[in-house]
Each structure stands twice: as structure tokens, then as C-alpha cells.
Amino acid sequence: MARVKAVLIDIDGVLTVSWRALPGAVAAMARLRQTEVGIRLVTNTTSRTRAWMATRLSALGFPVHPEDILTAPGLTAHYLHETYPGARCLVINSGDLSNDLPGLSLVNGEKDDVDVVVLGGAGPELDYPMMNRIFHHVQRGAALVAMNRNYYWATDTGLTLDTGTFLVGIEQASGVAATMTGKPAPTFFTSALAHVDADATTTLMVGDDVDSDVVGAQEAGIRGVLVRTGKYLPRDQDKAALPPDFVIDSFSDLPDLVEKLNG
């Protein structure tokens, strides 16, 4: 089995829940930093900017820097500039993403002036009037882009509905399938590998979402590690399209797994 030269790590549900460090996660990250293994944090989180996430994680004790974090908004901005240059974009997200979407033409969607509808993280913004407005724009030809299609995510009060729950309805009603830019899109993992300068066969992806994190990575040739924290549910693991390569109780067990694989 190939040695591990790089590790891609989801943040929410793996390192933190509601931006509080999970037990043993800080110490585990410090152990990984003492090795020659490359590290990148890869997240579909859209409620916070990359700079905020780096600052918060550092305050919690994680040895990370902004350049270590690869986000769905950052890749979405690149995709939109490349695919729809100059497009008028309606971005619906729980949180302000303007700093992570530089150079895009952002509109409020109240007029028929939308070329691309972009869905970030779900929140109060996705109410009935907004859902109907999205439906209207897509019906009249606007492209549909989503940073994730997760059905739920973990908070300190339990699981909370995410974008995928609403996206399914929009797709079914409009007959238009959304283009994915975050995990599990293959381009997300390809970009992550380029950032960490590693091959898929020598990389691990660690996540709590068996579909977006683990199976998505496996389909890109990356070995998937599922953690039993965050949004993990046994039923999701049982019905996954592919079994995880490894299942561990938490991120705190990852250094031991890497050490074993590189032994």
C-alpha cells in the first residue's frame, strides 16, 4: 500500500463542531505537523470567510494558516470567472461571501438580470420567496451552480438542514441539474491535490460526510478516511456507494493511522 505523503482534512465535524475544537483534534494536528506529510484543510463551509476560519482555528490552537485552507467559495469564484466571464450572479448564502468572490458581478435577483444562480450554505435566506425567485430565474435560462449538495450538517445543538435539501426541489421543479463546485465535485479534489503537490494514490481524505468527503475523494483516486464524529450516521455509511478505505473514531486517531501506513 502506498505511503501517505499528503492529507486533506475537512474542518466542520472533523476538527470542530460549531467552531469548537473536538477532543484531541489540536494535539493530533500538531503531531501531523511534525511529520513530512503535506496538509490542506478542504471545506464546503460558506458561512465564514477563509481568513476568519484561519484566525478562529489558530485561536483554538490549530497550527494552520490561510494558505492551508481550500474553500468551496474560492473554487466557485474561479469556476464562474472561467465559465461565465462577466456574468451577473445571484448568490444566496447564509453569510457574506463577497470577499471570497472577488471580481464577480453580484446582483440581488429582483429583476430579470440574472445569468447564474449560485447556492452557498442554507439559512434563513432560503425562504419561499427566494426559492420561487430562484425557480423563476432558472426557468428563464439562468445557469444553476451549487457549492454543496449536503442534506445536513452538524452543530452543537444537533443536525441542521443544509443546501441539498432545497436544491433537490429546485432541480426537480426546473428540470435543471446544478453544477457542483465544492465537494464532491472531481475538480475540487483535483485542485486540492495541486495545492498540496501530491498524487491521489499517496493522499488521504478525512471527513465526516461519507458521500461528499469520502466517496467523492475515492472516485478521484484518493483513499477515504471516515470519522465517527460530526454528522456521521451509521445509516449513511451502510448505504454509501463505496465503503470507506478506513474508519476511525475521531481525528485524534489519524496520526496513528498515518504512522501505521508509513511504517
Termini gap: 11 Å
Major sheet description: 6 strands, parallel
Reading the helices and strands in chain order gives EEEHEHEHEEEHEEEHEHEHEHEH
Percent strand equals: 15-25%
Predict the CATH topology of the largest domain. Rossmann fold
Radius of gyration: 18 Å
Overall pLDDT confidence: 94
- Could you name the CATH homologous superfamily of the largest domain? HAD superfamily/HAD-like
Low-confidence stretches: none
Name the overall outline.
Answer: globular
Strand arrangement, major sheet: 5-4-1-13-14-15
Number of strands: 15
Query: How many structural units, i.e. domains?
Result: 2
Give the helix level as a range of percent.
25-40%
Q: What's the helix count? A: 9
CATH secondary-structure class of the largest domain: Alpha Beta
Structural class: alpha/beta
CATH architecture of the largest domain: 3-Layer(aba) Sandwich
Structural features, described:
- The mean pLDDT is 94.
- The chain is globular.
- The protein is an alpha/beta fold.
- It has helices at residues 25-33, 50-60, 72-83, 128-139, 163-174, 186-196, 210-219, 234-238, 254-261; strands at residues 6-9, 16-17, 20-21, 38-43, 69-71, 88-92, 105-106, 116-119, 143-146, 152-155, 158-161, 179-180, 203-207, 223-227, 246-248.
- Helix 4 crosses helix 5.
- Strand 4, helix 2 (50-60) and strand 5 (69-71) form a beta-alpha-beta unit.
- The protein has a 6-stranded parallel sheet with strand order 5-4-1-13-14-15, with helices on both faces. Strands 7-6-8-9-12 form a 5-stranded parallel sheet, with helices on one face.
- It folds into 2 domains: 6-72 and 184-261, HAD superfamily/HAD-like (Rossmann fold, 3-Layer(aba) Sandwich); 84-180, Rossmann fold, CATH 3.40.50.
- The longest helix is centred in the first third of the chain and has 12 residues, at 72-83.
